Amino acid sequence: ASGEEQSLRTPIVAVLGHVDHGKTSLLDRVRGSAVIEGEAGAITQHIGATAVPLETISEISGALVNPDDFDLPGLLFIDTPGHHSFSTLRARGGALADIAILVVDVNDGFQPQTLEAIDILKRTQTPFIVAANKVDTTPGWNPNENSPIQQSMEAQSDRAESRLNEALYEIIGQLSENDFSADMYWRVRDFQGNVGVVPVSAMTGEGVPDLLAVLMGLSQRYMKEAMAIDVTGPGAGTVLEVKDERGFGKTLDVVLYDGSVRTDDTIVVGGLNEPIVTQVRALLQPRPLAEIRTEKQFEKVPEVRAAAGVKIAAPDLDDAIAGAPVRVVRDQPVAEVVEEVQAE
Ligand code: GTP
Ligand code: MG
């Protein structure tokens, strides 16, 4: 890829859906991690962020993703909680998204937070695909570890295949009741007018190659222009969490969705009473494939470009709040940016 192409912004993919339908498990499958094991009762209680490089996507997707066909650097996944009490966090995750995966348990179908997620996606006009998860729980299912889903479906008994198809058509029907024309992803020609359904299993990895391939295809095809921003311009982001970090005091876990942030940059952060103006002391970047929520070995870097998860260390962050905007000040009067942050 040429220098210009490399400045394409990483698309942000929000993962939304009802509690326990398998959002974190799907991301664990992609990361090769076990974040779910650190969660009390396997309930996600915060928004997470994980950068997945194009090389990893093409490794997982095999023949379905040829890295030479893409000039996006990868995808930034945002994990959200499905438990009903975290609606603010779901809305926040949805607002950050360029594209989304709605995770639906094939056996459980649409549930209250599935509908809530659909409302968020409608409101924010975010294009999405549906991951019909847990296909391995279909009675009589014969697992094919990490296989593309059509191959795996063809290898099932007629009985298991038709049980799964029934469950999938149920989901397609529920989408249509909610005003979305939908079909199995391999039959969808126009992803702008139709929602693609991807049968997957976070447990066996079946369909995960397809899920990543569809996301990359959609991002490349429909969002390339939106991604062609100046990733070296002044950054903008959202605070996920305010956390103590040993040796740094209070720090901000941020999703940077625009531009860049550098060490020593002046930043404005939404605070309890008024915006905080401070200066970046250190930028701590999670390793590729690490979940920022659980990462322990951050790398200190001089600059971070959108989209990315980054921990920002700076003085005076005691009054910073989760959900607040973060803005980098460069070639603009500080007072102007403070006003903008106040208005957000
Ligand atoms: P919240 O974040 O709390 O909304 O839940 P979640 O959507 O992240 O679900 P999570 O990944 O925590 O999974 C919930 C349960 O379903 C766990 O016990 C997982 O092991 C199980 N699970 C997830 N995906 C699959 C799957 O594909 N097959 C099977 N059999 N179980 C799964
Ligand atoms: Mg979760």
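^ guanosine-5'-triphosphate complex. The pocket of guanosine-5'-triphosphate (ligand 1) is lined by residues 17, 19-25, 36, 42-44, 81-83, 133-134, 136-137, 201-203 (CB under 6 Å). Residues 1-6 have pLDDT under 50 and may be disordered.
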